[in-house]
Amino acid sequence: xxxxxxxxxxxxxxxxxxxxxxxxxxxxxxxxLDLAHWLKGDYAIAKREEDDEEERADDIDKKDQV
Length: 66
Ligand SMILES: [Zn+2]
Prior knowledge:
The chain is mainly alpha-helical. It has a single domain (1-66), classed as Erythroid Transcription Factor GATA-1, Chain A, CATH 3.30.50.
């Protein structure tokens, strides 16, 4: 394997060469990390809007799983 990916791009998370199967990331790990970030951010925003209706216990349980 060369140091560069086919298209010369680098993983936005760790700056390693991207992998064909996981573009634009270098690995499943980075792809999952980015997805987790995205979902967390989205969840946090949604959470604020309906904060007083949701159950706190459910919130804690989800955070533990991530
Ligand atoms: Zn990466």
